Amino acid sequence: MRAPSFLSAAAVCLALGARALAAPPPLPAEHLTLQPLPPRSAHWVYVFDEAFNNEIDQRVLLFDGDSYRRLGQIDAGFFPAVNLSPDGSTTVVATTYFARGSRGARTDVVEFTDNSTLAVTHEIVLPPKRAETSPSLFAIAYSADARFLYAAYVTPAASFGVLDPARGTVLGEIDTAGCALVIPSGPNRVSSLCESGRLLTVTLGGDGHEVSRAMSEPFFSADEDPVFVQGIPTTNGYAFLSFLGEVHEIDFSGAQPKFAAPWSLVSPAEKGLWRPGAIQVGAIHRGLGRLYVPMHKGGEGTHKDGGSEIWVFDLASHQRLARWPVQAEGLSRVVAVQVSQDGAPILFAATEHADLAVLDARTGHVRHVEKQLGQTPWMLLNPW
Amino acid sequence: MHSLDRFLEHSSRSLARRTSRRSLLATLGQLLTGAALLPLLPVDRGSRAQASGAKPGADGPENCEYWKYCAIDGFLCSCCGGTSTSCPPGTAPSPITWIGTCHNPGDGRDYILSYNDCCGKTSCGNCPCVRNEREKPMYRPSRNNDLNWCMANADSNYHCSVSVILGVAEK
Known about the structure:
Helix content of chain B: 25-40%
Oligomer: heterodimer
Shape of chain A: globular
Largest interface: A-B, 43 and 37 residues
Mean pLDDT of chain B: 76
Low-confidence stretches of chain A: none
Number of strands of chain B: 8
Strand order of the largest sheet of chain B: 2-5-7
Distance between the termini of chain B: 9 Å
Mean pLDDT of chain A: 95
């Protein structure tokens, strides 16, 4: 019975030979290259990942809201402060490193990243007193003309450093006792939020040293209704939201801040029931004059709870235009929002489950949900 | 605001403004040493008993809902080798802190709590817990849990947080 098995083997060989003849050619050798960034887009967003579970390794992730691709990363160290230069060309990271990784001598440093390459270009070493705190636009900030860079210090006594980013030097330190953070305005003014509910405004000379200071009248009560420190850029300054939903719009275009009459995100019936809450608690499209706020139902102590809905307001009329029930659409609570400033705006919403939702900022339509973008994406920055 | 709250906040703020960091640390160190010598309160004894033997429960110090954690932000040291009042081995307590006022349902009293960070190792990563009752933004640092309170330690890396009873809040 050997003839049948011999025939079978021959058939198998023929079949294999035919397959070999039909096989495609081998893949060509590949070349290792460095991927360049595409041209900057208004729909990019810089996602600050606080990396809550390993805070010495925080980072900024660059994400494209059109292609839904992650484009690159900027390392950010321990409890960093992150911001962009006024022209969007530079990401500035003020951070802390320890000599032995997780321990050892502390070095505070400001690192400058070229946003066209995502490479660090230079740095400035700071005194070891940088404010290590939750993300805010006001822990490191540029003057309007980028001549100065301001770094908030807390030891816990509060002050700030004035830096020369072009020359890479620390010009000096200015005491702000009882007031914290650096809210920049114009080429040479820095305001700080005070425990007394006032704004301290320090005016600098050309050498970066203090020329004068002025204290505003109180505009909020830290006991009754504190304002979030995450101010939202407007056309002429910043809007600060209070825990109970008051909107304080402050015009920083003059020598001293001017305070508009506050208005409320909530109706009398909603007050104390619905409230804003998040780490980055609002975004404004300056061209459309629209304010986006993560809102939730909750009581005292829920000011960092994310929003189950995003409410949309018209800044001119103070009218609520829409309620977008993002939680009902399958997202977890929204802890940070940002909106692109172009004519086809995108609203980015980071959630407590570390997803990044991409919404049409005109309609609220959820276009895409990027799952698990980092650990704790708590602040979103626009390229311009 | 209760009077003891006010006193503690005022003291902390005044010290921060008026003194150097070295003298601030020395003074607060004395304050916290004094706090450690306070007679143990009934509820504090309860927490120690649970930490030393009892299984964690909804009202235990390994649970974020535990009453003493009403303004904590970080990782519970009870889950990291320490207890609700002790730092894990190899870390160092922060001498400067933020303060909370929490209601103990066990005896119906409000207590002033000192939330110290434990420092010198990287994030514990176990039992994350963020609660914000009466928590204030960082322009009121004595009530703010966003700051890294290891900031003044020789090794200022953050590991976990404890909650230490300082006394009863006066009505």
